[in-house]
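Objective 1.3, modelling of assemblies. Example input:
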Amino acid sequence: MGKLTIGCFSSLVGSMTLDFAVKLAEAARKKGHDVDMWLSGNGTMLSKKGQRSFKDYSSLEKTITDLVAGGANVTACEACAEARGFHKEDLISGFGRKSMDWYLASCFSADRVLHIGGE
Amino acid sequence: MGKLTIGCFSSLVGSMTLDFAVKLAEAARKKGHDVDMWLSGNGTMLSKKGQRSFKDYSSLEKTITDLVAGGANVTACEACAEARGFHKEDLISGFGRKSMDWYLASCFSADRVLHIGGE
Amino acid sequence: MSIKKMAFIVDKMPYKSETSRLALTHAIASQTVEIHLEDGENVEPVLAFIGAGVLNCLKNQKASEVYGVTTLESHIQNALLTDIKVLICEEDVKKYGLTEDQIIMDAEELGADITSELVPFSTIMSEMESSDHILFF
Amino acid sequence: MSIKKMAFIVDKMPYKSETSRLALTHAIASQTVEIHLEDGENVEPVLAFIGAGVLNCLKNQKASEVYGVTTLESHIQNALLTDIKVLICEEDVKKYGLTEDQIIMDAEELGADITSELVPFSTIMSEMESSDHILFF
Amino acid sequence: MKVGVFLSEHVKSNDTLDRLRAGSFDVVLVQNGVYCAAIKENGQASPVLGKATKVYALSEDLVSRGLEPSQVDEKVSVVNYDGLVDLIFNEFGKTIWL
Amino acid sequence: MKVGVFLSEHVKSNDTLDRLRAGSFDVVLVQNGVYCAAIKENGQASPVLGKATKVYALSEDLVSRGLEPSQVDEKVSVVNYDGLVDLIFNEFGKTIWL
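Predicted structure (tokens):
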């Protein structure tokens, strides 16, 4: 078993990139791998609690809360979140909020890194 | 003098598209035109109050509050905002929150429409 | 009686962002726009898929089962159900090697009376030219 | 003593989204990563601009005056100031008709000791190959 | 009145731009589209510049990116936000944002 | 071990893909990249398929878009999320998301 760090920098409700990242994390956890997930840039939106569930959007809050409860680390970039008006009290329970060096440290100890950049 | 409706569907803190839309709205107001601005999709983020100002991001809250005080209508898509966890109490004061038909009605009475779609 | 025609043109692919989805939901919002307008005023939407946007029109999308998100397919069927004119560029459908039976042409099982139309780009061009406003998604 | 080398590769243009900006800020975060690591462990970043990403390196960016947002120019200078290796693909600079004097090569006025380097793509390729992880922005 | 076609990305071609009726539109380069106005690729000016009789580029977006208005192709007219508002109301009947 | 190159968009070419050392990487088509696996353009399979010895496509993203695994080019192996995790750990030493 190894450790996979997924960096997700891409937006957001309406983009399927976060869905991809979450599904991959789920599949890796099921196989017994450790998973760290870093949310930066527009990806930090995933960490915002209180997103209302509409059929038009995949609603990831429950899936990712379960993922965290099952042992995955999900951490949002503090500066990126603040710039978007998401404060500490907006964070989904169980999520981390750290500065960018957390991601580098997570990559340091990861066997594999999937850095999802782009827009 | 005419009426310009700007629809801004594109993200967000970190994207320059909202900056473009706000600057264009300012320039149009200075020339005496009426301006309606519709924020939909990821563009609704502009309507979120409490965005912390960092040098790395253009901070539009003050500019756009001034714009609204000066008579521009800025309205965010209600469903798009809710899906992102932005509720009524998160709305910058003076902004509207409406359903999508508001935008079509605004286009109806506009002399010019600049619909900024894309990602 | 004053009708403004608005062209909703989709040239982006589905599922990368919500762009094409918002084209559909905004076009369908023309059904309720009257509450904001005076008597006799209305908006007439026309919805057209061009370029890579025609990939929104592929049948049998399973995004709902896989990702729990409404498919573009069901949005397009809703548009037909609310009698919105849906045009699909036939040159682009052909360019991608697709045939009419792979494309969403009707919403009969939902009870829609109209079907989508495969038309040459020139027809879509004319619709843009005769529209009051063009919204490119 | 355990050092992990990480390649931060920028192939996106500046100012469309914050992608290239986040490459810079994350690379610079390697300065403080030690607080999360054991003694003797560290991260060695290398930052490379390729393809359209070299447009991040144009001098005299005025985005701060116009839009009130930090320029990519000042981020690149900060990277040099913190002794991060900055590589710029010389084939791509040439492809865009740019010359070395149009490109951010140093941050002398800030007191940086190192300069950025115009190198062939093959050098950047080697850096990717010798890195433990590749982060493409 | 013409259609004002806004191009916000640095692309070599765009299917829609290629299919619009010649003479029916002008092109406005904004955001990363302004690179088309000033950056040659392998010595060639952007093919986008040949698509319309009139091509405009937004000065604020040029200088933000380190491009001087003096560097733009002679085919391109540089306008600022003020000028853009006038174009929208006086020259363009409709707009398209590609 | 090879580099796993993830392609998430339906593009005809990508500069980086063209410049990576042949044989050093496999391609994984995800999100809108899966159109490259199943959609021909003017009768031609996507040039992207010729760039690597092994090309994978994510089944969940194929069916979401109305594409059947049976429709994909014979060059492409279809994997699901489970299979993707195994590829990442067992076949790829590093990954690049283009």
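The beta strands of chain A are 3-8, 34-39, 73-77, 96-98, 112-116.
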